[in-house]
Amino acid sequence: MIKVAIVIGSTRPGRKAEVVARWVHGIAARRTDADFELVDLQAFDLPLLDEPMPPMMGQYSKPHTRAWSAKVASFDAYVFVTPEYNHGTSGALKNAIDYLYREWNNKAAGFVAYGSAGGVRAVEQLRLVMGELMVADVRAQLALSLFTDFENFTTFKPAPNHEKAVSTMLDQVIAWGGALKTLRSA
Ligand SMILES: Cc1cc2nc3c(=O)[nH]c(=O)nc-3n(C[C@H](O)[C@H](O)[C@H](O)COP(=O)(O)O)c2cc1C
Q: Mean pLDDT, to the nearest integer, of 19-44?
């Protein structure tokens, strides 16, 4: 079975990313075709990239980089739960992605975003980043609205139709994650 990380892509105090990621994980955990784990960027406490060597070299000098590398390397696929900050993803998520290189290569990813326009601009930006990292990003994505999926812009109350969208996105992530695992082991 492949292992899928559900990455909590905000470290902001009071972040919405955590409740959204836990909801995704709750839906995912009912499946039997992959293992799912929540990965919280906050737990890795990464400073702004502070490695002297380019990540592509894989020569890490800091304990926080080695811990993050080991965690990311242990998965076959990722679901990035991302807010939209100024029409992009969060600085925290982009920084965490930039820390590594080979750990991401030839794996699959899907996106769950939220924002006033469903976070779609953050996801479009992330798709460009995925290309450079050789991550296969699936078509299906979640676009949660701050207006209709959060009561008073605060309490997460996702519209019922989103659950089906999570399942479709996970179907695609698991299919591509499994295919690429074969490629990596060949
Ligand atoms: C620095 C900053 C920039 C933001 N820019 C946007 C934006 O461009 N588009 C949008 O829809 N929401 C924007 N928002 C609103 C966020 O989507 C909203 O605050 C969301 O809860 C942030 O995710 P988080 O709570 O998980 O950190 C912005 C919020 C912050 C803090």
A: 98
**CA 40 – ligand 1 centroid, Å:** 18
N-terminal to C-terminal alpha carbon distance within the chain: 17
- Across the beta sheet with 135-145, the strand order is 34-40, 2-8, 77-83, 107-115, 135-145
| pLDDT tens digits, 141-186 | 999 999 999 999 999 999 999 999 999 999 999 999 999 999 999 8
With tokens 């999926």, the residue in question is 149
| pTM reported for the whole predicted model | 0.98
Asked whether 15 lines ligand 1 (CB < 6 A), one says yes
* SS3 label, residue 58: coil
| CA–CA distance, 145 with 147 (Å, rounded to integer) | 5
Nearest-CA residue for atom 8 of ligand 1: 86
